[in-house]
């Protein structure tokens, strides 16, 4: 318990204090954008990880990120909502859509489910192209920065437009969202819900025979997963102040899945580490110029061969589990 | 005879042109040990799956305490108190023995999933109750020494006991055991026979089992139902079944002819 608190303390200190200090000292302000992306992508990856946890390969998180982004953008631009209201709404919208989509497709297992989810991202992109409300290929641009969030006159988050350093603000916001997401995920996994998800992953027939409503549980896990995808997408849109049908494509969906693989499917914090290493690693590899993709994919293959259970399995003691 | 706890009424199951079960009917009394026997492919497992809700009968129905359970999904049948164990050693592989039994207490939870998420008082009470009951079941089945073993590392005999522990964790009234003696040597079989008796005597369960091992079936059963080619051909006490000409005929010439053992 004490060790756990120290770990959490160190993590929060690192993310909220050491990183900003490091960036201020080295002057690498561009890292803020990269790290904010890492934080938000890892929120989406957390959702994908949860679908893995019920034994389903999810290559469709990009679809929910796109839907979440559009929901937020449309509500801000057309209905004049505050961004902070649209953020949870984007998640809820995605969760609801995922219930409708999930009910039929979650019966599928293995590669069949994976193929259908892969198609979802493309369906989302084409829908965004076709609908009038999403403004087609022109997308939605010049979205205002998030305004002030206050409760009873108390300012909780200041107006981003008035900030001297919005990059830092976005980073802190993204990091906070990430911390909150992983707190929720950790709690899910270590509560009864997580235990039932594991039972589902390991043997659906047996889970049903001990009284688990397997269809309901699958849809529940999938909708939580999609909720994470939606809020990640909404936050991205707020930062880039624009969204297009191609803002999230199949490659992004595949990446979400890879982040989970790399970090380790057996570890709650796996997708976070995976996102950091893959996204940040890709950025750092840009010094290798034309060899960037070669080195990147080569090391990816090597890692999967050497550490099939993900990077975090390095720290596993033999035969022991937390 | 007291009111039956389980009634199989004219259950018929067709898969395309194949009739797996045809008009099967029998009653099971509370706290009875009833075996369903029959040569390979006679339709015993199909019958079991229909009782537990894994497949629906083409016609006919299954009643539990007078109300229909056929047609309900397995989790609802389990919730009412009818639970099956599996022919194959079906367990949660990457959990320890104790985790397997604790997670199988799902039906006993009074707190909601949200309650468990936030660690409500009811959720903590439930968890303590699951842990206590799981230890109780582990002790009952004599699995204390392997409580913290990974299920995937267990030998066959322990796996089957664990499968039974998972079934017991739902606190059923009727337990369906699918070939509990399969692949066991004589000593193991005798231990399992004693255990099945204790399920009834100490836990008050009604036991329905499908089995090939005739000596064990004769020893353990209060009554036996014999199925051949999907039809019930006999029903009665072990001695009645042993003397029944249709049963003898069904088994004669097959590897299972050792019915008189």
From TrEMBL, chain A:
It comes from Albidovulum marisflavi. Pfam families: BPD_transp_2. CDD domains: TM_PBP1_LivM_like. Its main location: membrane. It is a multi-pass membrane protein. Keywords: Cell membrane, Membrane, Transmembrane, Transmembrane helix. This is Branched-chain amino acid ABC transporter permease. The chain crosses the membrane at residues 5-25, 31-55, 62-81, 87-106, 111-131, 168-189, 219-244, 256-281, 293-315. It is found in: Cell membrane.
TrEMBL record, chain B:
Residues 6-254 form the ABC transporter domain. Keywords: ATP-binding, Nucleotide-binding, Transport. The keyword Kinase does not apply. One of its GO terms (molecular function) is ATP binding. Gene3D superfamilies: P-loop containing nucleotide triphosphate hydrolases. InterPro entries: AAA+_ATPase, ABC_AA/LPS_Transport, ABC_transporter-like_ATP-bd, BCA_ABC_TP_C, P-loop_NTPase. PANTHER family: CONSERVED COMPONENT OF ABC TRANSPORTER FOR NATURAL AMINO ACIDS-RELATED. This is ABC transporter ATP-binding protein. It comes from Albidovulum marisflavi. The lineage of its organism: Bacteria, Pseudomonadati, Pseudomonadota, Alphaproteobacteria, Rhodobacterales.
């Amino acid at each position: 318990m004490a060790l756990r608190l120290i770990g959490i303390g160190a993590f929060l200190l690192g993310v909220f204090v050491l990183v900003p200090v490091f960036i201020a000292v080295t002057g690498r302000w561009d890292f803020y954008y990269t790290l904010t992306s890492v934080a938000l992508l890892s929120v989406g990856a957390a959702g994908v990880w949860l679908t893995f946890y019920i034994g389903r390969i999810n290559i469709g998180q990009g679809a929910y990120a796109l839907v979440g982004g559009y929901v937020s953008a449309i509500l801000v631009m057309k209905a004049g909502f505050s961004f902070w209201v649209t953020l949870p709404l984007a998640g809820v919208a995605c969760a609801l859509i995922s219930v409708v989509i999930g009910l039929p497709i979650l019966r599928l297992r293995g590669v069949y489910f994976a193929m259908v989810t892969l198609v979802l991202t493309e369906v989302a992109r084409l829908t965004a192209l076709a609908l009038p409300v999403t403004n087609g290929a022109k997308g939605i641009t010049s979205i205002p920065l998030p305004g002030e969030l206050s409760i009873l006159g108390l300012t909780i988050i200041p107006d981003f437009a008035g900030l001297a350093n919005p990059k830092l603000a976005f980073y802190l916001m993204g990091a906070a969202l990430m911390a909150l997401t992983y707190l929720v995920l950790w709690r899910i996994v270590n509560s009864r819900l997580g235990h039932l998800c594991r039972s589902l992953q390991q043997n659906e027939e047996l889970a049903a025979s001990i009284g688990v409503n397997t269809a309901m549980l699958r849809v529940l896990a999938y909708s939580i997963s999609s909720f994470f995808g939606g809020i990640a997408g909404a936050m991205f849109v707020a930062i880039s102040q624009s969204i297009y049908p191609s803002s999230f494509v199949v490659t992004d969906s595949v990446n979400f899945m890879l982040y989970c693989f790399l970090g380790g499917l057996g570890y709650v914090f796996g997708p976070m580490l995976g996102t950091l290493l893959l996204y940040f690693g890709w950025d750092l590899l840009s010094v290798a110029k034309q060899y960037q993709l070669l080195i990147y994919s080569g090391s990816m293959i090597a890692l999967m061969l050497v550490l099939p259970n993900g990077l975090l399995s390095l720290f596993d003691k033999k035969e022991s589990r937390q | 005879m007291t009111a039956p706890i389980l009634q199989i009424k004219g259950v018929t199951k067709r898969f395309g042109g194949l009739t797996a079960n045809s008009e099967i009917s029998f009653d099971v009394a509370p706290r009875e040990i009833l075996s369903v026997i029959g040569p390979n492919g006679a339709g015993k497992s199909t019958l079991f799956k229909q009782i537990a809700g894994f497949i629906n009968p083409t016609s006919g129905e299954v009643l539990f305490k007078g109300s229909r359970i056929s047609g309900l999904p397995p989790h609802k049948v389990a919730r009412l108190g009818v639970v099956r164990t599996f022919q194959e050693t079906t367990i949660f592989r990457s959990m320890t023995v104790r985790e397997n039994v604790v997670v199988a207490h799902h039906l006993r939870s009074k707190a909601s999933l949200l309650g468990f998420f936030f660690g409500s008082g009811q959720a903590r009470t439930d968890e303590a109750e699951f842990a206590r009951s799981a230890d109780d079941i582990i002790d009952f089945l004599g699995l204390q020494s392997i409580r913290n073993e990974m299920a995937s590392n267990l030998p066959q005999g322990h796996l089957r006991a664990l499968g039974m522990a998972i079934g017991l964790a739902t606190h059923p009234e009727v337990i369906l055991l699918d070939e509990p003696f399969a692949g066991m040597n004589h000593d193991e079989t005798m231990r399992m026979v004693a255990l099945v008796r204790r399920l009834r005597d100490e836990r008050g369960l009604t036991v329905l089992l499908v089995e090939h091992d005739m000596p064990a079936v004769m020893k353990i059963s209060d009554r036996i139902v014999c199925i051949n080619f999907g039809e019930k051909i006999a029903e009665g006490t072990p001695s009645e079944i042993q003397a029944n000409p249709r049963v003898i005929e069904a088994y004669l010439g097959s590897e299972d002819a050792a019915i008189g053992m």
